[in-house]
Amino acid sequence: MRRPLRLVTVSLCILPLLGSGFEYREALPGYQYQFPHDHFEHEDFRTEWWYYTGNVTGAAGERFGFELVFFREGARHEPAGKSAWTVQDLYLAHAALTDAKGNRFWYEERLNRGGPGLAGASFDRRRVWNGNWSAQWDGENQTLDAVTEHFRFHLQLVPEKPFVIQGENGVSQKAEGRGRASHYVSFPLLKVSGTINSTEVKGRAWMDHEWFTEQLAADQVGWDWFSVQLDNHTELMLFELRRKDGSIDPYSSGTFVDTRGVARHLRREDFSLEPLSYWQKYPVAWRVRVPSLNLDITCHPVLRDQQLRNTQGGPSYWEGAVDYSGSQTGVGYLEMTGYEGPVKF
Questions:
Q1: Helix, strand, coil percentages in the chain from 3-state DSSP, rounded to 5
Q2: Which end of the chain is more exposed for a tag (fewer CB within 10 A), N or C?
Q3: What is the pLDDT of residues 142-179, one digit of tens each?
Q4: What's domain 5-336's architecture?
C-alpha cells in the first residue's frame, strides 16, 4: 500500500492539459504474473511505483534509515505524438535519509518526463531510474544509487527470501468494486551492503512494486502501512485504510512471511493496530498484535520527525525508520498518509 501523494498533486495539475483517450487496464483478480517482465514498467496501467526502504548500520555505531522511490503516472493520450519529448508518462522520484546518530532527517524529490531517456523502468535495460538516481537489476540482485545535496548512497541489495505476491488471487484489494485494487509484489528481506556518504554500512531492506489504475474509494482518506522485519527471520506487512467517519475499512489487510519464505495472507480481523503516542498529528508509536502468530509488539520511531513535507502544494505525510520490541524484536518502516488532507487517486 503505497503512496504517490506528490505525483498525484503534480498530475492533477498537468494531466488535464494533456488530453485523454487512452483506456488504462484495471487491476483484476486472476492476473497472470510473468517474471522478470513484471518487475519493470506496465504502461497499460495508470500508476506504478517501485519502493525501497531499509535500515543499516556502520562499524562505529552509525544507524541509518534510507528510502529510494520511483513513481510513474500515465499521461497517455491518443493519438500518440512522434516527438521523444511528448509526455506519455510523468516520473517522480524521492530519496530520504534518517541519520539516527546525528538526529537528522533529509528528503529530496525530482520530477521528469520520460523524454529521451530521462527516466523510465525498462525491462530491456533492467533498470528503473530518474536522472542519476537508479535501481539497476542483475537477475534479482539490485543496486541503488542516489546523489543529493545532503547525502548519497550506493547500496547492493541481495534477496535472502523470494519475492511474494501480496493479496489474494493476484490482487491486493483496497476497496469495494471492480478494479479498486493493485497488483503488488514485495521482496520482504533484502541483504544490504554498501556506503552511505563515506560510511560503509550493512543491514536489511524491503522493496515494494505496485501497479494499478484505480485504488481508493471516495470515503477513504488515507492509510497506515507497516513493514516489519523481525530478528527471528520472519517478516510482516500490514496496512489499515481509514475512512472519513474515522472507521477502518474492512479491506485493510496484510501478509506474514515465515522463515522459509512462505507467505500467508492476513485479513482485517487477523490483526490490530493501536496508536500509543503522537508527534504533531501523527501516531508515531503503535501496538501491533497478530494473535494467531502470538505476536504482540510495539513500534517506535527512530526519530519522531520523519515527515516528508510537500513542496508542491499537496498534503505532506510521515514515513520513516522504526524499531519493534515486545514478544519479538526487529526493524522496519512506517508510513502514515491522510493526516493533513485526504489522499486522492
A1: 5, 55, 40
A2: C
A3: 999 999 999 999 999 999 999 999 999 999 999 999 99
A4: Beta Barrel (2.40)
